[in-house]
Amino acid sequence: MRFEELPTPCYVVDENLLEKNLKILNGVMERTGAKIILAQKAFSMYTMYPLIGRYLSGTAASGLYEAKLGYEEMGKENHVFAPAYREDEIDEIISYCDHIIFNSFSQVEKFRDKVLKAGKKIGLRINPECSTQVGHDIYNPCAVGSRFGVTIEHFRPEQLEGISGFHFHTLCQQNSDDLAKTLDAVEEKFGPYLSKMEWINFGGGHHITREDYDIALLEECIKRMQDKYGLHVYLEPGEAVALNAGYLVTTVLDTLKNGMDIAILDTSASCHMPDVLEMPYRPPLIDSGEPGEKPYTYRLGGQTCLSGDTIGDYSFDQPLEGGERLVFGDMAIYTMVKNTTFNGMPLPTIAVQDKNGDCRVVHQFNYQDFKMRLA
Ligand SMILES: *Cc1c(COP(=O)(O)O)cnc(C)c1O
């Protein structure tokens, strides 16, 4: 099917663009010997896992379901971190995962024997208390009162038995200069214990596939941990894997005026691109400009009853008309994993555009997907 023939709303993941990212990540792996795994939280479109698995070392999970998905659909190295594990899930989680990363010494105590008996590795998430991001505390695991990671104040050097690696995750959409700063803090606080470990996991938030990312400095950071402490290095980016690798295709349903021009689309910021409201950010829209840049400016909004369900103000060369299609960019990450059917909104179709530009629908949703989650 051609791109123009896809039903809307529809997420389309572009194999070429995804593979371009994977090649960049694989280059880092080849040159440094570090292992990079996909953080499924950002992108769990398992149709693409065979392709991703050709370039990356495996998957990272945040709990039982993601762990099971990575195990079933990629079947490579599988790591899990959760702020706390449930007793009724831990056995199954251990069966799917190679690294089980704990958030506290009490969790290590509780589950250490089970993990070691299964021949799996125990990691501890540390909190270097080094905030390198300004503004949004919702994405800052080093904010005051954060529930993530053991701080040096609560570190128990006498209880490291069975722990083979440290994990930290403090970045969000950041460059490698912030990673270097974070490593300084990790060394300053936890340096004496690093050489007792086998591996270190730098977490996610590395925007490695972004144009201005300094890959050379990332590789220096990796080598520093390898050479100085003899550590195996893991990274678990989510965003960087599928950054700019997908679209959301939508149709204009109507246009109206209220002090400005408004267009109603068959998609929803709240249901289909919640990061637009949460982050917040303005998604790229193909063939559009900033408000006022082109002659016709519209506020684009969704079909729900939420007043704030607007995607943003965009300008166009021609007035928008009902039936016209608009294509948003960067709609692979943190989109389908966060979908809701709030207000009875349908879930967008999921499709793939292959290397020749041919499109195929992978999954279409319907009324049952709304109903079955209610009772
Ligand atoms: C969210 C998260 C990631 C992935 O982060 P990105 O910003 O998508 O790269 C990796 N590891 C952990 C523990 C996370 O919470």
Automatic annotation (TrEMBL):
One family name in Pfam for this protein: Orn_DAP_Arg_deC
GO molecular function, one term: diaminopimelate decarboxylase activity
Gene3D superfamilies: Alanine racemase, Lyase, Ornithine Decarboxylase, Chain A, domain 1
Binding of substrate, residues: 239, 275
Residues annotated as domain Orn/DAP/Arg decarboxylase 2 C-terminal: 10-331
CDD domains named among the record's database cross-references: PLPDE_III_CANSDC
Cofactor dependence: pyridoxal 5'-phosphate
InterPro entries, alphabetized: Ala_racemase/Decarboxylase_C, De-COase2_C, Nsp_de-COase, PLP-binding_barrel
UniProt entry keywords in alphabetical sequence: Decarboxylase, Lyase, Pyridoxal phosphate, Spermidine biosynthesis
Keyword Transit peptide (UniProt): no
Name recorded for this polypeptide: Carboxynorspermidine decarboxylase
Source organism of this protein record: Schinkia azotoformans LMG 9581
Lineage: Bacteria, Bacillati, Bacillota, Bacilli, Bacillales
